[in-house]
Amino acid sequence: VALALGMPVEKVRIIQPATGGAFGGREDLSIQCFVGLAALKHPHKKVYLRYSRAESMAARHKRHALRIHYTMGAKRDGRLVAAKVTVWSDEGAYASTGIAVMRKASSHSTGPYRVPNVWVDVYGVHTNNNPTGAMRGFGAAQMACAYERMLDRLAEELGIDRIDIRQLNVLRHGEPITTTQIINEATAGECLDKALLQFARGVDPAVGNDLVAARRLWDARSYATPHPWLRRGYGVSVVCFGLGYGDGFPDASRARVRFNERNELEVYTGAVEVGQGLLTMIIQVASQAMGIEPERVRVIAA
Question: Cα separation of 49 and 31, whole Å?
Fold first, then answer.
């Protein structure tokens, strides 16, 4: 904002209220520079800029549309052996965070599953559409639609239950993902068991934690409904998403710290609290690193 307005950083003050989920919208500047310019033109006045839904769709980046060509190979018992994936990503008029989104799509191409042989190509295509950028899931969400649908099709082709084929291929503790990174704690299989038990308890609360009984109820699930115009279906999916920037990029943070005249540790940070507990975490990290009580740490955000 200081750069856009031609001002020194010390002359710009941004007060960031708690705003709830960011969903990727904070990766690009949007209204900040316009509001800052209006504030300079009208000193001592309150100014605001509010987009309607239509204006937001026209002026702001949104999720990448991906075209995904997916080939998956497996043995007759359902064990995955290979995946070949080609992705075309609509970047719109500008790249924005598109390259990072494409990297995420590549590294999440096989999700939480054990696939020993993987080939992925991801192409960014500039179009005359809106710029596309960071949006919740960051390229991994679109890939989940592809690999989960492929597993369903594979299960149907091989005559294997959807839960069985997932339990057979889902990553376990200490196994590598697509990028060869080792996942020490991989709990997707346990989540599947919990989902199966939850389903069974809805049918018969007496099931408790008996997975064998839960499995019998799942196999005998009914699609019957009280009226012919009603339909019933059962969905199963397992999705993973990497923490941090990822993809080999060095995740790092910076903060300016100093002791004030009251002997409190002031921590200046540009990171934004969007409901993830960031401010508490900063206090904990600073307190532990400096060896002082958390009560003596004061966070000055943005």
Answer: 7
Alpha-helix runs per DSSP H in the chain? 2-5, 32-41, 53-59, 98-107, 140-158, 162-169, 188-203, 211-219, 278-290
- 68: Cα within 13 Å, side-chain hemisphere: 28
Global pTM reads 0.80
Pairing of strands 182-183, 175-176: antiparallel
Report the half-sphere exposure of 257 (CA within 13 A, side-chain side). 17
Residue among 73, 163, 64 at smallest CA distance from 106: 64
Written as one string, the DSSP assignment of 178-228 is TT--EES---HHHHHHHHHHHHHHHH-GGGTT-HHHHHHHHHT-----SST
Of 255, 261, 252, nearest to 290 (Cα)? Answer: 255
Mind listing the pLDDT tens digit for each residue in 252-295?
A: 777 889 999 999 999 998 887 877 888 899 999 999 999 999 99
- Tell me, what's the pLDDT at 134? 83
Residue type, position 29, single letter? L
Strand 265-269 vs strand 256-259: parallel, antiparallel, or unpaired? antiparallel
Bigger pLDDT: 242 or 113?
Answer: 113
Per the listing, tokens 């401010």 go with 279
> Measured on CA atoms in the order 245, 169, 166, 172, is the torsion positive or negative?
negative
On whether the CB atoms of residues 40 and 5 are closer than 8 A, the answer is yes
